[in-house]
Design goal:
There is one protein chain. By secondary structure, this protein is mainly alpha-helical. Helix content is 60%, strand content 0%. It has 4 helices and no strands. Helix 2 (23-33) crosses helix 4. The relative contact order is 0.14.
Amino acid sequence: MLGKTKIAALIDPEEPPFPEELGYVWLWFSQHSMGLAATGMSYPVITWEGLWAWSQLLRIDLAAWEVDLMMQLSCIRANVHAEQTLEQRKDKK
């Protein structure tokens, strides 16, 4: 249910197949996410500067749509974590 809200999961419980053609972007996203700086105020997200530095370090020439996709995945990841934390807090009450 990664990235799906509870309502979306109820409407469409079937998970779509993983788009193998985009597997390399998922790998890049996963690698970059391991190095995100956490402030403790919210879940860490990819920054434009961080993504540029990461791509320069690894000598990866990102296309504009790949940058956009990684930024979107980062926001989805943070939202999913926040939703999970909220659910865990509700369960403890």
